[in-house]
What does this fold into?
Amino acid sequence: MEHYLDLLSVLMLLTAIMLVSHKRIRSYIRTFRLQAVLIAIIAGFMGMQSLVNEGSFDILVICAIIVALKVVIIPMLLHKTFANVEDVVEKDFYLNIPILILMSCVLVVFSYFTLSGISALNEGHVNLQVVNAFSVILIGFFFMISRKKAIGQIIGYLVMENGIFVTAIFSTHGMPFIVDIGIFIDMITAVLIMGVMVVQINDKFDSININNLRNLRG
Amino acid sequence: MGLVLWIAPLLAVALSQIAKRARTLHAISICVSLLMLVVAGFCTHAVMTAGQLTYSFLNHLFLIDSLSVIILDIVTAIYFLTCVYAIGYLQNEVRHGKIGEEKLRLYYMLLYIFLFAMVLALTVSNIGILWVAIEATTLASAFLVGFQNNPNSLEAAWKYIIICSVGIAITLVGIIFLHLSSVDVIQSGDALKWNVLLSEAKNLNEPVLRFAFLFIVVGFGTKAGLAPMHTWLPDAHSQAPSPVSALLSGVLLNSAMYAIIRCLTIVNVNIGDSRYTSRILIGFGLLSVVTAAIFILSQKDYKRLLAYSSIEHMGIIALAIGLFTPLSIFAGLLHMMNHSLTKTMLFLSSGNILQKYNAREISKISGLLKVLPVTGPIFLLGLLAISGTPPFSIFGSEVNVFISIFDANHPWLGVMLILLLAVIFAGIAATMFKIFFGDGDTVEMQAGEINLPGAVVMGILLIVIVVTGIYLPDGLKALFIAAQHIILGG
It folds into this structure.
């Protein structure tokens, strides 16, 4: 069982690094969906475990919500938003891709060294699942600041959120149920609002390049 | 009774959807805000007699004590006053064609959700739900910031939602670690409740808790406007409609600070010493004051000036709370109240100025005392108050902060802070000279107020900040002292 979870956490980390290497918005969305599927599987595994051990359905319900929300609805919303804005393929990152990937790897090493010092997290050996999940948060953050397009920032935010969810599930077997529900409601609202704003930005600035957003300074 | 605080705003959302005329919308808004104020008064009374107010519903999800009640009172009072002001403000906007009448409904709906989220954050016992509520305030107010729907306000709204969402996501990492530190100690039904965490604080896992606190301060600090995570604040506060700016500055920043204070107490009780949290909060606080001082000196836009002044005052509050002596905590809480009231008054008057002159630049405003006979003097006195001149209340709490700093044996810190506040005073004074004693070469303006109820609201605020600057009622003092004991962990 543990080996499957290890494998899944590594795969999830790989999808995050894959995302950093993409150039087109359509492939961002595809990779995000792949990552969401992996998270749903992780939640499914953990849910089965807690159903067998404690008889609670909470994590399985969360798993179902993830499938509905992150695998189906959010990618659909993103596609819709993307269809509404002008599609110009341009170089939309500040550094080239090999450097971005290299820096993502540095982030993984960084989170390994940060988390290996916390004894409550690691029983005897370093808990690599949490390290992988935590790296996904950092890579999502890094992705946000490395892209110039507004949609890239939304995806980065969602990847961070994915990483946070998996960190929670690996380190504490999930947050209290009611909190998780609240987080999902907030997340879907955030994506809706950001989507509307991207369309508005496209109308007002004629592109979704956030480098144009620099009127307010000082 | 306390649950009315949750139900009333949600009911108002529904009512505002059915209301047909602008007048009905305004009436609902006044009724709801007045109701909230009355219920908050009731809660204050209950907390002062019993110490805590809670209901068994949903495993004691609703829980308030003196600390939350102080901030709850600030929220409801300022919300009520801005609602009165907003009627005149919105009518002017509609008359000038800045917004269509149909957008009023959207405005009020978002405002009620904003209010609900803020009140939820203050009255809930679960830190996870508190997180959800604070994130919801961002989402509800993002469109309010971008309400004018021009490129500048859109830019501000985008920065606001992205920076605050990421900041808040970082907090969530902290809350996960907070949860992790308590997993072995607290049963799953009581997980993440601040009252349970506090009573079990000694048994929590210390290294994890320290780690968690860093994330929580950075995340909620983003929302509270602490430098260097403050970058959304000047944009959002200057681009939002003035009643919303007043709410963001006077109310929202406090709610985020409240969340930091809750976690701070748990961490300090656990470690048994406040040095760790002191270093973090004093660092962020001092950096905020420095940043504000630099930007206030070179500011060309009066609403941005006020926004930077909010960063300054949140910095002072963080510093005072971080110092963690009884006096500094008392002063910090008092400063929170004083700053909220004064800053609300200033943002409301800046709304009148903006509507009258139709300009944001300090250089385009002159002869204000003549053109706006009520707003002008209030704005002048407000600027004096916010820069810490007696007899206004901010002077009182700032003096208390200084005394506590020197008492706690940090002379260099006190000297540095005094110098920075002097710089800020100079910056604001320079602005004042330009606005009030300009040579008046602008186009001739017709003198006269444009929002009379609004002017009355500002007058009330002015009286309050003068009176509390001289005399603090005993009841209020007792409430602050009770909150101070809670923060100290006792």
Observations:
- Chain B touches chain A through 51 residues (CB under 8 Å).
